[in-house]
Amino acid sequence: MPLIGNFAGSLFASFISRYAGIVILLILGVIGGKMIKEGFEHRKEPQKVAMRKKLSLGILIFQAIATSIDAFAVGVGFSAMQVNIVQAVVLIAIVTIILTTIAIIIGRKFGDILGSSAEILGGAILVIIGIKAIIA
């Protein structure tokens, strides 16, 4: 996505940067709000927490787009700074793989321990990131 953002940034950076924060807030706000709502619902029905929830393809795609918007914006910034885009993309990919693996391991461990509180906390973090995107 940074590579696509780099290309698009050279074409129409002002338009993209003007609306990126709003789009990020909307997407992360919806996902985070849904997680918070479900976390409170699971507190009322604790047996549902024990069942592993599967993500639908639609939710997975929605979350992928939400996180890709940031990477797209970084690519736009790279075009303005004339960064070596190939090196940047490779470094971003390596760091993403490492951090995602660590997050999955930690999430599995603490998700089981914290139950619905983990879902509420995760949703709140997404909403905060969305608010930060529109403020920044």
From TrEMBL:
InterPro entries: Mntp/YtaF. Keywords: Cell membrane, Membrane, Transmembrane, Transmembrane helix. The keyword Transmembrane applies. The chain crosses the membrane at residues 12-36, 57-79, 85-106, 113-135. The keyword Repeat does not apply. This is Putative manganese efflux pump MntP.
